[in-house]
Write a structure and sequence with these properties.
The protein is α+β, with helices and mostly antiparallel strands. It is built from five helices and eight strands, in the order H-E-H-E-E-H-H-E-E-E-E-E-H. Strands 1, 2, 3, 4, 5, 6, 7 and 8 form an eight-stranded mixed sheet that branches. Strand 5 and strand 6 form a beta hairpin. Helix 3 packs across helix 5. The chain is globular.
Length: about 200
Amino acid sequence: MSKALFLQSSSLLCRRKVLSCGVSAMADPSAATKGDATQDGLSQLARSILPHILNLYNCKANAADFDVYASNATFEDPLMRANGVPQIKSAFYSIPKVFSEGRISDDYSVVEEPENGEIRIDNVQHYKFLGRQIDMPSLIKLKVENGKVISHQDLWHKQPLKSRDTVKLPLVGRLAESVRRGNMMITHLLMGCGKDPATAA
């Protein structure tokens, strides 16, 4: 395993990250339902986006799944910040390189706020690394404009990402931002700059 990917996986272990997958949704947050439940409360756009996002977390990503993103979309979690679709591809294509298992549990819930262009997936993510099971609560926040995802945040333990705007010491926040960008650049290079994996003939 490459050094950068190993460091990435070690950070995940320290933070007890859990990947979960399941899709259910209601427009009213108070009526949000569990995975495998009806999606009748979601807009057609949200229903078309969700399966692709779930594929990313379930280690089933292919090139078509990234078509839901705008070309200038961003993805950010406590480890990395990706700018643009190629970097987002590298971030998700790296998951099965590090973990023997990655998935979102079936009891997640989905809330859509069409007026704000926001979709939220309250979930638990499950990873397996060197035989060790890692389970972590997460809140996935998608911002959608003109039919495309422009912002994708994965908030581990449902906590805000550390940045100059969210910590008491701006210098600490800037350092956290720089580390995420550095991790992303290393991962992007190791993953062939977002190259799609070869598909079976």
